[in-house]
């Protein structure tokens, strides 16, 4: 596949879908986007893309990228909308960038690949801003030949990527990566709050932390948002919580306890109860700030 006259459909124009559409347009692909929110469709048109009025229009694109919220939405879009529009034996390539239940996505692949859809799961590690800059890391699950056939699209959206294995394995890797990332984010929030309570200047402390053995990339992406209370979303609390529940479900199936992940889930759930679900996930620091109490007796 080459960019020149190829048109890519993107279903879901939220934080990540909007970024993926932008990267594809910048790489020279034609763009047809679809979202249930008319404002997001209008925004795409203002940026030079085209907006579909129905998913059946997206099915006519040369390849389709899914960037919807949940596993259930992926299943619905593919099986109830795209597959009937495409018909059997289409050979259409569908890329699923959503973070999903890996077992359900593997089962979806088993159902639709025999019907002629070439399906890859392609979740990405990184904030929407990191992906916009080409710094996201794609995790590919599915047929290597399909990945090779769609390489120009993958090059546009994920310059850095790994082919993990079969359908489902990309999502499994994404959940494990996100577990570590979420705990790094929570640890950063707690460390910044603790430093401030100790009387340290948070920005000065951050420079120390960045050069210490405690460094993690999340200090570069989230620390100033936490300090400045700038919670314009690059990855929403409610979506992070959705991913955490996927991790906990997988762990329960495996009989594996994840004690630190349970703490992260508790903090994220408290943020949602506080009305912060649509804020950037760096807002976990607000819940840490709220957790004050009596001093321990000496």
Describe this structure in a few short sentences.
The chain has 298 residues and is of the alpha/beta class.
Question: What order do the helices and strands come in, and which of them pair?
Answer:
Elements: E1 7-11, H1 15-26, E2 30-34, H2 38-46, E3 50-51, H3 55-58, E4 63-66, H4 71-86, E5 93-96, H5 102-112, E6 118-121, E7 124-125, H6 128-132, E8 137-141, H7 144-149, H8 151-157, E9 160-165, H9 169-197, H10 202-210, H11 218-228, H12 237-254, H13 259-273, H14 284-290
Parallel strand pairs: 1-2, 1-4, 2-3, 4-5, 5-6, 8-9
Antiparallel strand pairs: 7-8
Helix pairs in contact: 4-5, 9-11, 9-12, 9-14, 10-11, 12-13, 13-14
Count every helix, treating DSSP H or I runs of 4 or more residues as helices.
14
**Quaternary class:** single chain
Q: Supply the CATH superfamily name of the largest domain.
A: NAD(P)-binding Rossmann-like Domain
Strand content: 5-15%
How would you describe the shape? globular
Low-pLDDT ranges: none
Helicity range: 40-55%
Structural class: alpha/beta
Mean pLDDT, rounded to whole units? Answer: 95
